[in-house]
Amino acid sequence: MGNVLIVVSALAGALLFYVGAPSQRWLRAPLPARPARFAATACIALSLVCAARALQPATSLSVVVTMLMAGLTAYPFIGALLERRRARLSAR
C-alpha cells in the first residue's frame, strides 16, 4: 500500500503542476497558479516522506523523480489527445 501511495502522490503532484500552468490543455482554464503549486509541492513532499520510510534514500529519490518525469512528460501528450477529441466532437 505504501508503494502505491508513493507513485500516486508523485503523479498527483506532477498533474497539479501541469494544470496550474497557463499553457495546459486538460482544463478550459488553468487552475490558479499559487494554490496549484502549493498543493503539488505538498503531494510531492508526501511522496518523498513515504518513499524515505519505505525505501533506501537514493532509491526513494530516484522513484519520486522518475514518477515526476513520467507524469510531466505524459500529461502534455494526453492533453493534446483530449484537445483533438474535443475538436472532433465539436465539429459534428
Question: Would you kindly provide a written description of the structure presented here, covering whatever features stand out?
Answer:
- Keywords: Membrane, Transmembrane, Transmembrane helix.
- The chain crosses the membrane at residues 6-23, 35-55, 61-82.
- Helix 1 (2-19) packs across helix 3 and helix 2 (33-54) crosses helix 3.
- The chain contains three helices and no strands.
- It is mainly α.
- The mean pLDDT is 91.
- The protein has one domain (2-91).
- The chain has helices at residues 2-19, 33-54, 57-91.
- Low-pLDDT residue intervals, each spanning 5 or more residues: none
Choose one word for the global shape. Answer: elongated
How far is it from the N-terminal to the C-terminal residue, by CA? 44 Å
Please work out how many helical segments DSSP would assign. Answer: 3
